[in-house]
Amino acid sequence: MTFHPAKIPADPGKPVVPALIETREQALQAARQLAAGWAPKAAERDRHRILPHHEIAAFTASGLGAITVPRDWGGPGLDHVTLAEVFEILCAADSSVGQIPQNHFGVIQLLSEAGSPEQKARWFADILAGARIGNAGPEKSRKPVTHNATGLSRGPEGLRLNGHRFYSTGAMFAHWIPTRAADEQGRPVQVWVARDAPGVQVVDDWSSFGQRTTASGSVIFHDVPVAEDQIIPVWQRAEVPGLAGPVSQLIQAAIDSGIAIGALDEAVRFIRDKSRPWVDSGVARAQDDPYVISDIGRLQVDLWAARAVLHDAARLLDDIAAGEVTAEASARASVAVAEAKILTTEIALNAAEKLFELAGSAATREGPNLGRIWRNARTHTLHDPVRWKHHLLGNWHLNGALPARHQWN
Hints:
Layout: H1 24-38, H2 42-48, H3 53-62, H4 80-93, H5 95-99, H6 102-114, H7 117-128, E1 151-155, E2 158-165, E3 176-182, E4 188-194, E5 200-203, E6 218-226, E7 231-232, H8 244-273, H9 290-321, H10 327-359, H11 371-380, H12 386-399
Antiparallel strand pairs: 1-2, 2-6, 3-4, 4-7, 5-6
Helix pairs in contact: 1-3, 1-4, 4-8, 4-9, 6-8, 8-9, 8-10, 8-11, 9-10, 10-11, 10-12
């Protein structure tokens, strides 16, 4: 597959004035309306790497970007079950577009836990007004993902940020781009940089075979001026239990669940409308093949099971967030979300593979571009290795070991 760089606007434009969402029902309805608009052109966007600027603007206009802003700061403070279901709905329609807001919500959680009152007032107000939050992700290297060469330095004109980040899902469409960096003492901090700040360059160099329109490529910071109030000292949170990691992982699991939902929907649709029965089946329609019926039933059960565990994990996060987040509570949240992540990974990959086995060779044609579903499933489920989720669970149940606290747990 040839990589074609997409046309990039200089900046994401002024924030779109969002609708007001106050309830779970409004959020789910908004997600369904967006999904209905995204789905018809998902194959075309993937085929030609058309970056979804209009779709992301519609996401912002819907009001969904503010649904987890806490009530104390003017937002609806909707629950994690709703957040998970919104991602499932959007990613069933187009998981590339649906993935883009993942860091927006992950950053909201971290801001809630680690931001100062002044930072919360400022940035939550921006989000409520339609600002999108991106991310400048881990650096490209063979070193552990926590390795950080991006840093702050102080000169005659104040603080400056320098570094080259990658896996920056959402940065292309963002108004604010938070990134991890080392402060002057080498301690980890989160630095919020405006997308249009001098010295910020967002590069369209994402060339994966899956999730092709997430624009998850590079962000380069070259002597970017940074004010003191744009820095969140996350190093101070190292020993403080929280839910930032579990919330981030819940979103990842919901994206995979959405991919599985979309894969199974496409399989059913193709089998009903386009597949032909196997010669030995003795039936006139592919949907009457007893083996196809059985496999669809098995996939549906596996999907229901994965979604049930996912939603149970989200409810646990809601329960924990309502009280004091202790080390034990934070660990239970990580364990619950790890269980969900294992199951949603498995069903996303299995449903995307079975789509072709059950629908038949006609499903591999370029026209419907159903191959994007398997490519997206395979790419996104690599976000964090499931083998370490199994290790986390085994170590918890066998040895009582609390999971490490970071955004991948």
